[in-house]
Amino acid sequence: MQIEIKIDENCKEPKIIVMTDKMTDEVNAIIKRLSDEQPQVIAGFRDDVVEVLEPSEIYRVFAESGKVFAETNHGEYALRLRLYEAEQRLDSKTFVRISNSDIINLRKVKSFDLSFAGTICITLSNGTVTYVSRRSVAKIKQLLGM
Fold it and tell me: Domain named HTH LytTR-type: which ranges (predicted)?
């Protein structure tokens, strides 16, 4: 794919033109991403205070005792979303569901331990340890190029 940017002082609003010989999944993904105008905000609740969480600061989103939490540098925040709703709001290239109750930020992974039979142990850069479910092992191995 080629990307070309032209600077024009007369242009008041950015304009994007996609030139292709046929519609492909890649072209459709680009169009979908560009046309998605709503910023995906994640609001975290802690001690009667609501904070807007930057996705880049989130280590993982997980469900525990029927509630959904986001783990960041600053601690855990309760989310008023279901896990699948949080998954839809987060970038699928950065965040991956590793089990029915856990979504991790791939950019915050310190290591993958494959020594456990049938599963993968993931250590995040903040020291949190979590496990990939057996159902998701194949997907994670594919992500790792194995």
Answer: 42-146
Choose among 108, 93, 130: nearest CA to 59.
108
**Positions of the chain with pLDDT lower than 70, given as ranges:** 36-40
CA distance linking residue 92 with residue 39, whole number of Å: 15
Digit-coded pLDDT (tens) for 23-52: 888 888 888 777 765 556 789 999 989 999
The CA–CA distances, whole Å, from 14 to 11, 17, 34, 115 equal 7, 10, 12, 50
Residue 32 tokens read as: 């979908």
Tokens of 30: 């680009």
Containing 86, the helix (H) or strand (E) segment is helix 83-89
Contact 52, 46 (CB under 8 A): no
Q: In a 3-state reduction of DSSP, which class is residue 140?
A: helix
